[in-house]
Design a protein that fits this description.
Bound molecules: flavin-adenine dinucleotide
Number of domains: 3
Shape: globular
CATH topology of the largest domain: FAD/NAD(P)-binding domain
Helix content: 25-40%
Largest sheet: 5 strands, mixed
Radius of gyration: 24 Å
Oligomer: single chain
């Protein structure tokens, strides 16, 4: 693959026909994750589209001119013009394919697709999900010389990467930024030698056959599977939520609070996440209105005391949201007073929703024994109701979901598997 510098940009890119340009950096895990996808697609599309790389650190001015703010970023050009969307962060193979297909005639795309050869690989263990549970299992298995692949639909790290600060993970005197803790966990496991396939589409999971298909054409078989897919935020399921998700409604304070400097926001929920995250958002926002359905928070006492002492925070107890509407730059949240049944409208710049989580089990929920809330039942070795299929972390039926408990589950599953494979 050709590497260019700023001097060659005009000749290679602007006068270069159809081009995809990868701005990469060193010491950049998302760049490492995209590199094999980029190279694989270069082999497939290389006769029609030029695949180029450019080192961002040495070509900063050009990167800034082109609006590139992070690594990796992929830009697409057709006859000197930038086309399609720029891709950055945890880039999936399917996202790149979508952009490449858009700059080629349909007949040519069909010809290229017909050349794709399905691949099959075999490992001892597949771990689905690279949060703390999956990463810990990966580390222990790797140190036991067990051939393991970690598969994630996003970049490694799980929910910890989007948690602003973690102060209760042992081993650190000061609170750790969540992204650093998850980065260190991920690098430790990767350095040991566990194979990573991250930011992929998990197309199919066949637990009985112990095989999965990723990115449509890549089959991975194993002797054992560990499910470590964690949880996702619950949606409220009310009018306007789907349409305004990411356009005024957010489920991640670490990701989005920074956009609300000196602005007013509504926070929905009353558990630990809502209370802690509202406190974090108040570092940016000028005013926060919290909406909670009960007459008291369920968060821990320490977090509640901090919140009550925060002058930026107003609380509406015994109110429930009924709809979201966007009017110009403002979000209108209609909430019902559960005692009087009267509705009022809250005007804000944005809304954060923290109303609990649901297990990520869509791809295999019919095959496993679950508890009443849809979490996977396991025994004390983390074995599920199916032979050779283990589950760890937030996705399993248990009382307390924390980084430490996910890490503990991952440890147990890995040791049990190591013994079973011995
Ligand atoms: C806002 C917030 C703050 C928190 N703060 C703290 C704290 O301060 N201290 C603490 O101990 N805990 C905290 N937690 C809880 C903690 O983050 C979780 O308990 C922990 O991350 C669970 O780890 P896990 O590996 O089970 O799952 P996750 O961390 O959820 O990781 C699951 C991984 O699986 C991937 N995945 C999902 N579906 C699939 C699929 N189909 N195929 C492949 N991969 C998939 C996801 O992309 C993700 O990377 C917090 C949680 C939140 C939401």
């Amino acid at each position: 693959m050709k590497e260019i510098s700023t001097n060659e940009f005009e000749q290679e890119v602007l006068n270069g026909g159809k081009v995809v340009l990868d701005f990469y950096s060193t010491e950049c895990p998302p760049c490492e994750a995209v590199a094999p996808k980029f190279e694989g697609l270069a082999t497939l599309y290389g006769n029609d589209i030029k695949f180029l790389k450019i080192f961002r650190q040495n070509n900063r001015e050009l990167a800034e001119q082109l609006g590139v703010k992070s690594s990796p970023t992929l830009l697409f050009f057709d006859n000197g013009k930038q086309v399609g969307n720029m891709l950055s962060g945890g880039i999936k193979r399917s996202d790149i394919i979508h952009q490449l297909d858009n700059i080629l005639p349909v007949e040519r795309v069909n010809e290229i697709k017909s050349q794709i050869k399905p691949s099959v690989s075999e490992y001892d263990v597949i771990i689905l999900g690279a949060g703390p549970g999956g990463l810990t299992a990966g580390l222990y298995l790797c140190q036991s010389k067990i051939n393991t692949v970690l598969v994630d639909i996003a970049l490694p790290g799980g929910q910890v990467s989007t948690t602003h600060e973690v102060s209760n993970y042992p081993g650190f005197i000061d609170p750790q930024p969540g992204y650093m803790l998850s980065h260190n966990m991920s690098e430790q496991t990767k350095l040991c030698g566990t194979v990573y396939k991250v930011a992929v589409d998990v197309t199919k999971v066949n637990l009985e056959k112990k095989e999965i298909i990723i990115d449509e054409f890549e089959t991975i078989k194993a002797k054992k599977i560990i499910i470590a897919t964690g949880t996702s935020p619950n949606l409220m399921g009310i009018s306007g939520e789907k349409e305004l998700k990411g356009k005024g409604i957010s489920y991640c304070a670490t990701c989005d609070a920074k956009y609300y400097g000196d602005k007013e926001v509504v926070v929905i929920g009353g558990g630990n996440s809502a209370v802690e995250e509202a406190d974090f958002i108040s570092k940016f926002a000028s005013k926060i209105t919290m909406v909670h359905q009960f007459d008291a928070f369920t968060a821990n006492k320490q977090a509640q005391e901090k919140l009550f002492a925060n002058p930026k925070i107003n609380i509406l107890f015994e109110y429930e949201p009924r709809s979201f509407v966007r009017e110009g730059n403002k979000m209108i949240t209609e909430v019902e007073n559960l005692k009087t049944k009267e509705n009022i409208k809250l005007t804000s710049d944005g809304v954060f929703v923290f109303i609990g989580m649901k297990p990520n089990i869509e791809l295999f929920k019919d095959k496993l024994e679950l508890d009443n809330w849809g979490y996977i039942k396991t025994n004390e070795d983390m074995l599920t109701s199916l032979p050779d299929i283990y589950a760890v972390g937030d996705v399993i039926s248990k009382k307390y979901r924390q980084i430490t408990t996910a890490v503990s589950d991952g440890t147990i599953a890995a040791i049990a598997i190591a013994k079973a494979l011995d």
